[in-house]
């Protein structure tokens, strides 16, 4: 009896010893991971296993970043799981990293979520030679299919006519413009990439736009962050992260189907769009080895997602701000009436004669700040920034919020004020305005986005006055996914 009792006691004790040993081992391993290299940027002390996660509000990361910069300075360090992150703030240092030391920070970091969805392919998340070849090809093909040319402008003017018709059909009643705007903007990149636009009543395409919206929201969620920190655990746990992968699977299937259709009726001597041009490139004997079908799928998918979400989110912010500030909207309308009138479509040539409207479009982009911490970069070599040591493989976040809301750069950073971009009634360029980022890896669609924003916005304000529905207050609250977008809202559009 005594022997039995001793044996049970011994077993319990040895289990405890093993557990204590294991916990100590994990703590030491975790502690070792969190030891900062010499002269590493300062930052909050990482907690065991949690790293700096408690210092970040995942629903408002740009606000956390601003607070941490106030405390630790313009370059500070964070840690989540195995990942070391350095956040860079302020115009001078952000330009130093993106432009002057651009080649040291040109890569994108890998993450379990991104790996599962995008692999290392396409335009946005690829690195090295694959990225170089895909980016160069995409830029020259976008140019061949109209970027910077009259034909693309006409395409956007035609699409804005469809958009106006759809909004007019709402007859001044409250409606949520989200998916009409999404559809219109998406049609521009779709016609360049896939050779087709999609009708606003095409239920399959509408479903796809909803899928994209949901996938991008889930990508910014806590579930996705948890998957990145502990993929081996999250893989087996149920949760919305599985829905995220499923939705991306459906989006890929949509693009794959379009590629298959293109292969059937491809005529190498008459490329109709990006996909045809890519098939031509693949068929060349001397083309780089990265031109294969999976890269075609991912480059086309990247153009579709980057070209749809960003510009349409900015336009949705734009209509919201116009309804919140009717005086500003009226001034835009007065300028449109005197420069363009009501009988023709706005064109890019008008922009130089419309400093106020141009300033409003810029101010919408500044204050809506849709990619507040930029798209992350990865350090390719050990380097020094602001005197701090940044080791190879550190994730770099260049805080665009710190530029777009800098009190030393903007007279009233937190106020919607088109005057930020005006001087003596003329349009004024501002150095701290970098919503498309800068350097070799800056936004590939900047010119397209600027053309779309000016023409769509001006065409809508030319035709309608946007107002809050009776007895409803419009909110500037946002939600965060891959971009910062307004909470769903309803608005009334009255024909002028
Ligand atoms: C208001 C609209 C837009 C904004 C604010 C925006 C902003 C950005 C930003 C901040 C980046 C990251 C740049 C960096 O890492 O330094 C980016 C990358 C990118 N954007 Fe845009 N973008 C917009 C519209 C577009 C459009 C219309 C396209 C379609 C062609 C596009 C395609 C891309 C691509 C392919 C990349 C990845 C570039 C690379 O990694 O080399 N963007 N964009």
Automatic annotation (TrEMBL):
A UniProt-annotated Pfam family = p450
List the record's Gene Ontology CC terms alphabetically: endoplasmic reticulum membrane
Q: Which Gene3D superfamilies match?
A: Cytochrome P450 (1.10.630.10)
Tell me, which GO biological process terms does this entry list? organic acid metabolic process; xenobiotic metabolic process
Where can this protein be found? Answer: Endoplasmic reticulum membrane; Microsome membrane
* The entry's keywords: Endoplasmic reticulum, Heme, Iron, Membrane, Metal-binding, Microsome, Monooxygenase, Oxidoreductase, Transmembrane, Transmembrane helix
The entry's protein name is Cytochrome P450 2J2-like isoform X1
As for family, the record states: Belongs to the cytochrome P450 family.
Superkingdom assignment: Eukaryota
């Amino acid at each position: 009896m005594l022997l039995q009792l001793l044996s049970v006691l011994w077993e319990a004790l040895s289990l405890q010893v093993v557990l204590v040993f294991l916990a100590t081992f994990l703590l030491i391993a975790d502690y070792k991971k969190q030891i900062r290299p010499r002269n590493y940027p300062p930052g909050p002390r990482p907690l065991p296993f949690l790293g700096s996660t408690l210092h970040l509000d995942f629903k408002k990361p740009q606000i956390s970043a601003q607070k941490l910069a106030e405390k630790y300075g313009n370059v500070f360090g964070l840690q989540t799981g195995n990942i070391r992150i350095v956040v860079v703030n302020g115009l001078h240092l952000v330009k130093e990293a993106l432009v002057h030391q651009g080649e040291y920070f040109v890569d994108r970091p890998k993450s379990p979520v991104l790996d599962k969805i995008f692999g290392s392919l396409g335009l946005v998340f690829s690195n090295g030679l694959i990225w170089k070849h895909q980016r160069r090809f995409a830029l020259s093909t976008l140019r061949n299919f109209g970027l910077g040319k009259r034909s693309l402008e006409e395409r956007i003017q035609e699409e804005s006519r469809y958009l106006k018709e759809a909004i007019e059909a709402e007859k001044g009643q409250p409606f949520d413009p989200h998916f009409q705007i999404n559809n219109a903007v998406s049609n521009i990149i779709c016609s360049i990439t896939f050779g087709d636009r999609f009708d606003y009543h095409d239920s399959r395409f509408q479903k796809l736009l909803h899928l994209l919206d949901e996938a991008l929201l889930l990508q910014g969620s806590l579930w996705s962050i948890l998957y990145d920190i502990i993929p081996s655990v999250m893989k087996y746990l149920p949760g919305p992260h599985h829905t995220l992968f499923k939705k991306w699977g459906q989006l890929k299937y949509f693009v794959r189907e379009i590629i298959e259709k293109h292969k059937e009726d491809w005529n190498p001597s008459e490329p109709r769009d990006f996909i045809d041009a890519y098939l031509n490139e693949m068929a060349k004997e001397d083309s780089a080895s990265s031109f294969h079908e999976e890269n075609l799928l991912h480059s086309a998918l990247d153009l579709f997602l980057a070209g749809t979400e960003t510009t349409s989110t900015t336009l949705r912010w734009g209509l919201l701000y116009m309804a919140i500030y009717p005086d500003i909207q009226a001034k835009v309308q007065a300028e449109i009436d005197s420069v363009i009138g009501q009988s023709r479509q706005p064109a890019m040539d008008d922009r130089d004669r419309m400093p106020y409207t141009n300033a409003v479009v810029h101010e919408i982009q500044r204050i809506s700040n849709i990619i507040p911490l930029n798209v992350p970069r990865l350090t390719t070599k050990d380097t020094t920034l602001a005197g701090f040591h940044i080791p190879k493989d550190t994730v770099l976040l260049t805080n665009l919020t710190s530029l777009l809301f800098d009190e030393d750069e903007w007279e009233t950073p937190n106020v919607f004020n088109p005057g930020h971009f005006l001087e003596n009634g003329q349009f004024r360029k501002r150095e701290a305005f970098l919503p498309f980022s800068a350097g070799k890896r800056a936004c590939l669609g900047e010119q397209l986005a600027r053309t779309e924003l000016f023409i769509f916005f001006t065409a809508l304000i030319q035709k309608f006055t946007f107002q809050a529905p009776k007895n409803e207050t419009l909110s500037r609250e946002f939600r965060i996914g891959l971009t910062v977008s307004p909470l769903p809202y309803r608005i009334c559009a009255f024909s002028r």
